[in-house]
Amino acid sequence: MKEQSIKLGISIGDLNGIGGEIVMRTLEDALMLDLCTPVIFASAKTVTYILKHFELDLNFQGIKHASQAIDGKLNVVNVWNENPSINFGKEDPEAGAYAIKSLKAAVEALKNGDVDVLVTAPINKASIQAEDFKFPGHTDYLNQELEGNSLMFMVSEHLKVGLLTDHVPVSDISLSITTDLIKKKFETIHQSLIQDFGVERPKIAFLGINPHVGDNGVIGKEDDAVLIPTLAELRSKGKITYGPYAADSFFGSGNYKNFDAIIAAYHDQGLIPFKTLAFGKGVNYTAGLNKVRTSPDHGTAFEIAGKGVADTGSFKEAVFMALDIYKKREEYAELTQNVLKKQPRKKQPGGRSRQKER
Asked: Which percentage of the chain shows pLDDT scores above 90?
């Protein structure tokens, strides 16, 4: 019996950005249909326009609902019937509104099990703001809609970086980092490394909050007061965690190669080195949720939108990673569920184990 294909949900992103191009160019590879069944949330009219603009020869099946997706074909769910204008490179709330329509429909299908995983094309954070959508990005919305505690986890083959705080203003970072937050983020990454990436005993390093880890309180007291005691507590409970390390030399020295993951205190502390070392091959993975969602490690790139020069590398990696994590989770569930506890054999007088009668 043929194994059922993984249904790959794709939200189209900002119509005026590079999302449509990288999605279609990725799916132009016929081998993709051997790996999964793609389900794009947009409309047949919109997809046709994108294909024509980039002169791509790609057949698709228009459907009304994700549950109607046909294995072995590219499926497009008609989330809207109108034909929205696409103005590549322009920041426009109308394009943002369609991006949110696509995202909401895709997440609903993910929650209902009509798709197995979700890969999101880039959105523009300014364009998406509306009365019914006041989130700084995908991660916060997914955290509301799905079960679990979301964490932005930037992942490549040789580097994995998680964040204590993500889309938080610099002025609020130190106030946001608490003992409970550190423990929660650590546990999320620890569990993700085990169930999503197959790491048996994860080694996790922390970066300091302040320059030089505060220099014993001379440059800020948060490391001494909050981070260092919390890491000591985690170690006392048998967790393999190291640091905190001064962030300025940690990546340049190659020290990151000694760990399965690194936890940065804030957005730019983690993402600047990650994107420097892995840009174009990195993936933004939302760890900690009951469903799998990935995205490329870049934004809408308005400056090159519509020109046919966008690099599909990161989006392809996001697709491959979503499929790999889904399979890893299935394997993990199979290994951990219904595990029968070994019962000691009853012994007969004299110390010999009772053998089954033949």
From this structure: 82
